[in-house]
Design goal:
By secondary structure, this protein is an all-beta fold. Helices cover 0% and strands 58% of the residues. It has no helices and eleven strands. It is globular, with a radius of gyration of 13 Å. The N and C termini lie far apart (40 Å).
Length: 114
């Protein structure tokens, strides 16, 4: 079992920046990758970014160049640094960990006003 606790998020104006954090606990040695997804009202959940335990990263095309995912394996935390926020980035952001199955954090809201 893996538990994920998210922090960060909030309301910002377009062009602003935010940092989302996710702390994992429990069977963290079984985690193969961690990821961020988001869901806007009325839309399907959307992949944002992921990071493998070896540091390789992947990003959705819509966030490349603006979002940066990073991890600290010693503290089992993953951050998502977001720059140049756009109103279209408004969503609930969920941290996930894959350890044979997916585990999810509680979600954190990001609201971007124009």
């Amino acid at each position: 079992q893996v538990q994920l606790v998210q922090s960060g998020g909030g309301s910002v104006q377009a062009g602003g920046s935010l940092r989302l954090s996710c702390a994992a606990s429990g069977s963290t040695s079984s985690i193969q990758l961690m990821k961020w997804v988001r869901q806007s009202p009325g839309k399907a959940r959307e992949f944002v970014s992921l990071i493998y335990r070896d540091g390789r990263t992947e990003y959705a095309d819509s966030v490349k160049g603006r979002f940066t995912i990073s991890q600290d394996i010693t503290t089992n935390t993953v951050d998502l640094q977001i720059h140049s926020l756009e109103p279209e980035d408004t969503a609930m952001y969920f941290c996930g960990a894959f350890a044979g199955v997916d585990y999810w954090g509680q979600g954190t809201r990001v609201t971007v006003s124009s």
